[in-house]
Amino acid sequence: MLKLGLDPSISQWQVACFAADCDLVFFDKVEPGDRNPLEVIWASRNGETQLHFIDDPLIDLSYLALVGVEAEQISDRALESSSAVTLCNALDRVESDEDENERLHTASLLGVLAPVQYEPAVFEAFQKLFASPSAAVRRRAVMAASYPAWPEFQPLLKQLSLTEADPEVRERAKAALKAFELHGIAGSGQPN
Questions:
Q1: According to a count of CB atoms within 10 Å of the terminal CB, is the N or C end of the chain lower?
Q2: CA 186 to CA 172: how far, in whole Å?
Q3: Residue 161 CA: distances (Å) to CA of 98, 139, 185
Q4: CA distances (Å), 24 to each of 10, 14, 44, 49, 73, in order?
Q5: Which of 133, 96, 94 minimizes the C-alpha distance to 114?
Q6: What angle do CA 165, 185, 90 make, to 5 degrees?
């Protein structure tokens, strides 16, 4: 599966037009609920490729997930439009974003685009976001860290749950730790 973050200005309608340009047809729509975000799916006519548009209000991010034989070609087309963001782009943004809204968006991107397995560069980027002077950015980073849910986050979340000045960040860190425990996410808790 390939994932691409979307610029906040990109609408579901624009993604639908992009899907049509890629010769994909509407396949399904999952309405948002308590346990899931809005998801709209387009597929190739032979069913071998799918484009998923996900609008996740939990971290205020829309993104694409591509699956199948044509996923890479469709990803390349999306990247040509310059409104799609890769993990490498998100990592670069951690260093360059100065505006709080941009940093919030970057934290969300990192959460969604992070690989399933621990990646040191992404972990370091999260560490920087956890140390942001903005409580809003720290809150978003805690939420976003729950997406890859690496055991290596546990010591950072534990520290935030105990020492963070902002009560909402503390509570979100506690909730993330509880969710890790509930889902059996454990390990050394030490980055490699």
A1: C
A2: 18
A3: 26, 11, 17
A4: 18, 13, 5, 8, 13
A5: 94
A6: 65
Tens place of pLDDT per residue across the chain (192 aa): 999 999 999 999 999 999 999 999 999 999 999 889 999 999 999 999 999 999 999 999 999 999 999 999 999 999 998 789 999 999 999 988 789 999 999 999 999 999 999 999 999 999 999 999 999 999 999 999 999 999 999 999 999 999 999 999 999 999 999 998 888 887 555 554
Alpha helices, DSSP H, located in 36-188: 71-80, 87-96, 100-113, 120-130, 135-145, 154-163, 167-182
90 contacts 82 by C-beta, under 8 angstroms? no
Tell me how far apart the alpha carbons of residues 125 and 158 are, in angstroms, rounded to a whole number. 18
For residue 93, give both structure tokens: 């943004």
